[in-house]
Amino acid sequence: MTARGAATAPRGRPRDADRAGRRDALLETAMRQFLAHGYGGTTIEVVAAEARVAKRTVYTTVGDKADLFVAVVRRLGDRVVNAVAPDAGDPVTDLHAFGVRLVRLMLSDEAIGLHRLVTGEAATFPDLAARHYANGPRRYIGVLAGLLAALPPERIAVRAGDHEVLAEQLFTLLMGERHRRRMFGLDPAPTEDDAAAHVTTVLELILTPAEG
């Protein structure tokens, strides 16, 4: 019986991987539709047709249109939150690495497009805006707070009350005018080197220099 169980176990894993792959493809299709046609102009029917799945599959896999949009936002964020940071045994390095990934994500064409979309729809769909914020910026601020909490207290040069408050301020510094200029279409998405230099400059504002 043990041998039979061992033999059947591998067959379950590809099915799980296939389901994850189909869901990812569905969300990629949905993102393209949202960016091309806006929230109001995107329908479950069109997303299902473009993804070559049944309309019912969208509902059972993700949910309604609002759930679909939130899942698209969260999928983008997973690239940042779930990415493996360099393990140098240094919390400053981890904070810097996350900051670079965050800047590149938030200033990417996809994230800027979704941000413009939800900003334009916020008055009509306030719950959508709230869910976008919770699964986007608020989520990233929570990660920043955890990374700041891992720093030795003497490395933090400012007094902001607590790590959550400081994380909000750090998020604002990382986005700032760069995000505004991207929203207005004035700047291109940053390169890896540009993002790294920007994060370094920002962290110098809130961290004390390392000893030695």
UniProtKB/TrEMBL annotation:
SUPFAM superfamilies: Homeodomain-like, Tetracyclin repressor-like, C-terminal domain
Region (Disordered): 1-21
Keyword DNA-binding included in the entry's annotation: yes
Protein name as annotated: AcrR family transcriptional regulator
Segments of the chain annotated as binding DNA: 43-62
Family matches, as PROSITE patterns: HTH_TETR_2
Segments of skewed composition (Low complexity): 1-11
HTH tetR-type domain ranges (all copies): 20-80
Superkingdom in the source lineage: Bacteria
Keyword field contains Amino-acid biosynthesis: no
UniProt keyword list: DNA-binding
